[in-house]
Amino acid sequence: MRFILSFLGLLLTPQVVVLRRRFDSEKVFRVKVQNENQLNDLKDLASMIQLDFWHPHSVHHVLIGKEVDFRVSSDQTNFAEKFLEQNQMQYKILFHNLQEEIEKQFDGGKLFRKKYSYTRYNEWEKITAWMERMANKNPKLISKIEIGKTYEERPMYVLKVGKQSGQKKVIFMDCGVHAREWISPAFCQWFVKEAVRTYRIDKDMTKLLDNMNFYVLPVFNIDGYVWSWTKDRMWRKNRSNNSNSDCIGTDLNRNFKASWGLDTEDRLHDPCEPVYCGSSAESEPETKAVTSFIRAHLACIKGYITIHAYSQMLLFPYGYTEEKAPNHGKLNELAKEAVDALYSLYNTNYVYGAIATTIYPCSGTSVDWAYDEGIKYSFVFELRDRGQYNFLLPESQIKPTCKETMLAIKVIANHIVSTVQ
């Protein structure tokens, strides 16, 4: 009887159930904006229906003569197509059914999907177990350090990679700032694996690990990453609540104290915007954990690398101003050397340059913050591709993407270990 009453109580109690979002018949458009009128037309469209901007991340970053990618829900695609045609805007549809493309992303084989794999996208639980395994199996090369907790109280760990003796130069590298950029965490895992596998075999890696350490944060935005696996594949921000708003999350790459919140159109201060910068600089526990850790190790951190996707770019400060960084020439020269090395493997073309003048101005970014803190070799990678797959890079491209990116990372790291004091 008690069981029956308990069961009835469960039936009568309101249950909050969040189902995994599907994207059936949703489309992704690519539009080339030809002139000022078309730019204004696109802004009008964005004000009439909800557009999820993929590249660039906001309608306010769209430039004349450049392409823009955005997602449209299934019930608004006909309206969007008619609007573009009526305004004679050049466009093509990249994805006709986004849900199908999401499912195609998992092309790494159907067998043994519950096992961890470097050539598949791994859920957060697999990544945490992998970190523990790597630290336990390789105690002379890897140690695991907790640097804080996320908004949802998940522990954040960095892996210290390198010979565990003496004070050395350090590169801090993070992946997975934006939840939907799955190729990014895949690269950080690949990097750690290759460091361990090739130490004492590859002379460049051996030199690096003997003379410097890497602090690797495999997933920066853990809560968002989990949400992108379990509820919404296209989620970008973290999962913090915002006061006076039903909209969830902050863009962690707009939450750093580097001209934070600098925005003439207030979109950064709208919690419903994908680029919402938070209530204040370092308002988010994830940002605070990273900045506190880096500040505590500033004396030895000589390089900062953050991994994003997509668009095949290697960028450096500044983003918040078009003024050149004091060592712009060195950064530009090193970026060119890095992308040339990357190109040498599969002929993958990368653009390189300062953020504000190469893509668009943006404030509150981690790479600008790191640079302003004194880390003068600070870079952001935007990995594959340039629009065929966008955020849905298939698992079959993880290995080539990671292999070519390793070459670029080695160039930057070798420069730091050899020349930077």
TrEMBL record:
Record's keyword annotation contains Hydrolase: yes
Superkingdom assignment: Eukaryota
Active site: 382 (proton donor/acceptor)
Any one of the GO CC terms: extracellular space
UniProt signal peptide: 1-19
Coiled coil: none
InterPro entries: CARBOXYPEPT_ZN_1 (IPR057246), CARBOXYPEPT_ZN_2 (IPR057247), M14A-like_propep (IPR036990), M14A_act_pep (IPR003146), Peptidase_M14 (IPR000834)
The Peptidase M14 domain, residue ranges: 120-416
GO biological process, one term: proteolysis
Keywords recorded for this protein, A-Z: Carboxypeptidase, Disulfide bond, Hydrolase, Metal-binding, Metalloprotease, Protease, Signal, Zinc
Pfam families membership: Peptidase_M14 (PF00246), Propep_M14 (PF02244)
GO molecular function: metallocarboxypeptidase activity; zinc ion binding
Cofactor: Zn(2+)
Family of this protein: Belongs to the peptidase M14 family.
Annotated protein name in UniProt: Mast cell carboxypeptidase A
